[in-house]
Amino acid sequence: MKPANEFLIKEEQVFSGALSCRGCGWSLLVRHLASLLGPDTVYVLPASCFSIISGPYPLSELKANVVHTLFAAAPATATGVRAALDRQGKTKTHVVVLAGDGGTFDIGLQALSGAAARSENILYIVNNNGAYMNTGIQSSTATPYGAITTTNPGEGYKKSWPKDLMGIIAAHNLPYAATCSLAYMEDFRGKVMRARDTEGFRLLMIDGPCPPGHKTEPGDSISIARLAVDARLFPLYEIERQHYKMTYKPETFLPVTECLKHQGRFKHLFREENKVMLEDIQEHTDDNWNKLLALEKLAQVLA
Amino acid sequence: MKTEILEKTSGIRHKTETSLYPRHQQLIMKGNYAAAEAAKLCRVGYVPAYPITPQTTIVERLSEMVATGEMDAKYTNMDSEHSAFAAAMGAALGGERVFTATAGQGLFYAHEVLHAIAHFRLPMVVANVGRPSIPWNIWSDQSDSLSQRDTGWVQFYGESSQEVLDTMIQAYLLAEQLNLPVMVVLDAFYQSHTSENVWVPDIDLVDEFLPAKVPGPMSIDLENPKAFGGLVPPEHYNKLNYTYWRDAIQVEEKAEQIAADFATKFGREYHNVEAINIGPKTKLVLVTVSSITSTARGVIKKYPDVGLLKIRLFKPFPKASVQEALKDLPKDAILAPVERNFLGDREGAIFQEMQRALYGMPIKMYDFYAGAGGKDVPPDTIEKIIHLARTNPKEVNWVDIA
After folding, report:
1. Which terminus of chain B has fewer Cβ atoms in its 10 Å neighbourhood, N or C?
2. Total-model pTM
3. Distance, CA of B349 to chain centre
């Protein structure tokens, strides 16, 4: 048993006063990330919730250099920053993109693919909260099937499945990519350290709690994130050169409804006439889980 | 063998040094290679690139020079012009001297990044080989760069390969003195792919003129971390624009001073604008940019009362230099801008800027659209413009419409 005063974060690399909503995942994510990366880091931020959270001019939440850049251009901007630092011999300095799902799945996908394919020595963090939350909860291609957003309102709720970003990124043959949850902190921190210590283009996708966007209680953020993992809606795994490895397998089966029912954005799915939607989501979730297990098995065969 | 191949692809043929310009070599090269050569001479450290006709041979040549070690720089093949300019922005924030080249759609695609680079106050030089937008056309036209007039970039237009090379050297000095980005524009094919004599200075001569890049106010400093470009509240934003304006209005004077220093060092003279045969007896002045100027230079030799005003610095438009160049014109003189651009307006870009520079002055001006999309503007066309301007011109004229 560790003593109660032994904290995970030994030295804070953020200032107090982050401008996030209550229950937002960004601040917790960046607090841990920054403490593991240290001050010798340049963060590159496209437009996202975090560009506001990290502070408007002249403030900065992070005790490191921060470059705010264009929505579509974070991996390209980071490429230039990396090149300059390397030219000056500062090859150990971390260059880290902090992006949302809109900046990653949609408008930034080309630049992301370019940087990944070039094997730029950059760590890319995507906080996937499943919509353009900063502009007020508009749908992105990361928005879950069935969810209501301000651009998929009411009966116009989202009827297409989100992109498999990890599959897309795996196809770039990255040295390291992983999914993480703030509810599984040791797993998350371990993956950050692994990504930190790997050379080349690395990507971590974190399930991002968002009470205003998901219509949840701020105090429930972490428990809902845990349910998402346990119901296999957000599986935790690593991908190393297209080789998949599950890092957490829930021991018991938990229906997706156990996670979805806490989120107002899925409330309409629980009406009797939408029962089939929930069945669709369960089936899709099971298929995805089985596909990941098969990919893990394939990696073992190839190893 | 390797060198031979390089020479073949680069189009450079060595000649012997003569005494006209000491510490120079006279070479024959295309405008695009002159631009690439200038980037090397300026000791550019980072080149993010994306191909587009007719710019491509600039970045090809740079990739060659980096690959062979002739140039000590990092070269990156990017995924688009948007990304190429964003990478240039990142490396400039990182304190490197950067260069890239583009044309037409590439420049249009990079539009939002152009704004960001300028308003981040990042010094850099970019070569644009002018071509228009879709429907597809790859030939000479200045609509691409002129439509980026308002992004905050300084713009020079080169008349010859020599001028492109020399202007790029001056442009880095200007950019780094004022923390502004500079675009050097050359004509598609007439310049980019046409071989000319070019005096190439020795790199140590350039070193004496252009000091090594040092970190600026917008450089990342690992010892003193800060945030760049976060949300700026209204009162601060307005002040940032004021400081930008305060520095931008110095461009005209600084550029002229840098050109004068360049003339002392390298022996070749440049001005923001060049007045040819403009005096009390001049009745008509053609106003040109880029290679059309060379054609007009030849034509006006036949017309003792026709002058020529070449605009080299286009943005910020050199109002004082224009007024100075035209100060001896008689009151009934006529100005005739020759436009190789179309920006969707009644008048072309040169006419608009000249009207602004001469507002309130009793000078008549008639606009002449000619040569958009690369249409040839031969001496005959220039003569047509002269005759039309003297007989019965409309305020805006299109010449040689098929």
Report:
1. C
2. 0.96
3. 15
